[in-house]
Amino acid sequence: MTTKNFQNEIKLLDQIYEDMIEATHNEPDMNDIESMRLFIENSFRIFNRTIFRIVEVKNSLSENEKPDLSTWNPPA
User: How many other C-beta atoms lie within 10 A of the C-beta of residue 16?
Assistant: First the structure.
């Protein structure tokens, strides 16, 4: 049985988690337009950073993986 070390991927997923928690805990006062605007801008910034990190994790996980290009050829 082989085990893989996913330390880099775990670190990136932890950063995504921390960003999401931070974004949800900074809920603005709904009566203050400026704080709502800042909250929305910050949410979009975190969303874009999350997309970038997810692509990074995906690429990191698939870079060492070789696709199975063999075909199944049953005997006649």
Answer: 19
